[in-house]
Amino acid sequence: MFRPVAVVVLAVALSAVALGCEQQEPRTALSYSADAKRAYDEAMKEFQSHNWLESQTLFREVKRKYHYSKYAKLAELRIADADFEQEKFTEAIRGYRQFVHDHRSDPEEVGYARSRIAEAQYKQISESFLLPTADERDQAVILDAFRELKGYVHDYPDSKESPKIRELLIEVTARLMRHELYVARFYLARDNFQAAVYRIQYAMRNFAGGPSLRGPDEALDSGLEAEALLLLGEVYLKMKKYPEARESFDALLRDYPRSPLVVQANNFLAYMQGRGV
User: Fold this and answer.
1) pLDDT tens per residue across span 27-48
2) Residue 276 included in any domain
3) N-term to C-term CA, the chain
4) Residue 247: inside a domain
5) If 36 and its partner were Cys, which of 71, 76, 81, 166 is the partner (CB 3.0–4.6 Å)?
6) pTM of the model
């Protein structure tokens, strides 16, 4: 049996709870968005101060508490950006890829994420990887960067990030081509002529300058295309395939008339003419 005092206390407590519930205003969509923006802005302060780990913690809170706001989506990108800034490129790529997978209906932000994937892939290439070597080192890292950069330029030719990505693509493409020509010379020095031809043709087919490397009003002439044609002509000369050699030298003269290698191409053609071949 309850005591009268206890009953009164309980009634007062229940009344207070009920009154508190009645007085609490329901959260509106406007207040939800405002709270999300406030939380995102606080995280951005840490991000802009280069407090990467603190900012990531706050961005994750934005994602958790305001999942249905646009700021949760932006927070995902900033978390990946923070990894990128810390040179945690593998983690950054993973984050950007997840964003692309989850938000395909947002072309602008997806385009940004893809540009960062391409740039992160490039930054994973160490300088030693970019230099030609005598051995057949694994080219997977460079080729991954090449594919990402080329894919971005193809899909977003007019974006604000495209000029920068195109520059990286030209650099990576030139390094890949130099590697192939280096290997071709390696084979040529050992009289493995057919292997040299295959490597040069592979380089020309996959890494020679083309529309995917050019901007709307740009022309690309890295000098490597002329170098490849001259080398190919030399190999064909060694193989005594004179029509193919002449075709290579003529292509150099026709397509790259301002190349300094024009002199050597003309010398080879004069040599062939002098020998009647």
Assistant:
1) 677 889 999 999 999 999 999 9
2) no
3) 122
4) no
5) 71
6) 0.76
- Mean pLDDT across the stretch 60-74? 95
Q: Are 176 and 129 in contact, with CB atoms under 8 Å apart? A: no
Residue 241, Ramachandran bin (φ over 0: left; ψ between -120 and 50: alpha; else beta) = beta
Question: Does the pLDDT at position 235 exceed 60?
Answer: yes
Task: Please check whether residue 51 lies inside any domain of the structure.
Answer: yes
Q: Which residues lie below 8 Å from residue 201, measured CB to CB, with a gap of 6+?
A: 232
Mean pLDDT calculated for residue range 200-220: 66
pLDDT digit string, tens, across residues 115-172: 999 999 999 886 555 555 544 555 788 899 999 999 999 999 999 999 999 999 998 9
d(CA 210, CA 85): 32
| CB proximity list for 197: less than 8 A, separation 6 or greater | 184, 232, 235, 236, 239
Provide mean pLDDT across the span 175-195: 94
Cβ atoms within 10 Å of 112's Cβ, excluding its own: 20
Note whether residue 99 is domain-resident: yes
CATH number, domain with residue 72: 1.25.40.10
98: its two tokens: 């997840």
Q: How many domains does the chain have?
A: 1
pLDDT in tens, 6-26: 444 444 444 544 444 444 445
Nearest CA among 175, 86, 94 for reference residue 130: 175
- Locate 248 and state its tokens: 């290579």
- The domain containing residue 80 runs over which residues? 37-113
